[in-house]
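Re-run with default settings, no changes from the original entry. Doing this only to confirm the output is reproducible before filing.
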Amino acid sequence: MLKLSDFDYKLPKELIAQYPLVKREDARLLVISRKTGKIEHRIFKDIRDYFQKEDLLVLNNTKVLPSRLLGRRISGGKVEVLLLKRKNGLAFSALIKPARIKIGEKIIFNGGNSYGTLSDRNELTFNLKDVESVYKLGVMPLPPYIKRNSEESDNLYYQTVFAKEEGAIAAPTAGLHFSEELIEEIKLAGVNIAYITLHVGLGTFKPVKSEDITQHRIDPESFSVSQDAVNLIEEARLKERRILAVGTTVCRTLETFASGKKEGEADLFIYPGYQFKLVDCLLTNFHLPCTTLLMLVHAFLGQELAKKAYQEAIEKKYRFYSYGDAMLII
């Protein structure tokens, strides 16, 4: 049995990155070989050295919406809202804290000029004119381990430079390290780039509670693989070129695509024992203990090597989680 405790580790709190680096590509990069177990310590922009001509680099072009809203009840109490998905009109499925707010109650935003009504359980309907007006009330939904409020700079840094398709409530963080200049340099080196879309949803943060991890289920997330991406993937397979997935979201999307789906809902849970069909190399950030993201890394790298890499990252004081450093598995 694969136990939840097998994916636990202790991380000093000071290693949890609270702010991004000014230059995205200046993050540190731990490079580990699946074949030899060799670990190298580089700077992210050095990732160029690990590409080969006609490799296929796959990026997730989802765009994070400013979906965290801070409001108050008519009685004056503070309310925090996370908009998960638009349902219809101006009704959104949402996480609302505190949870004791009753159906029919109003939550006031923007000094009282705007409000949302709890129209159903976990559903908020706004009195505004359009969706854009709703998201103007929001800020970037930083993860809870970043112990500060969202700032203006997060609008830039908690978004990849290639973000295009709106719909995520969290960033595909492995992609945050790429600058536009670095992407151009990679293209000039003869590397092909494909864009897929997976809108990161609440399932990314859903804790695994069962000690037998195989009993866990991932919440579905909307994804699509464009025809351009399909063509590049098929070409890479035909020429036996490497496919490099940038992040766990891309990895899960590619592996879902390998099963015959080009779009729809992705709920593939990858854990040790999974046989990868498309992904040859994986770029990823360092993930929280006991999460499905870490389990995917263990599946790709092997449990012993994954533990070794994480232990070394801790010893070398790498920065962890969303605004942290990265690991390239080759």
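Residues 33 and 242 are 14 Å apart (CA to CA). The mean pLDDT is 96.
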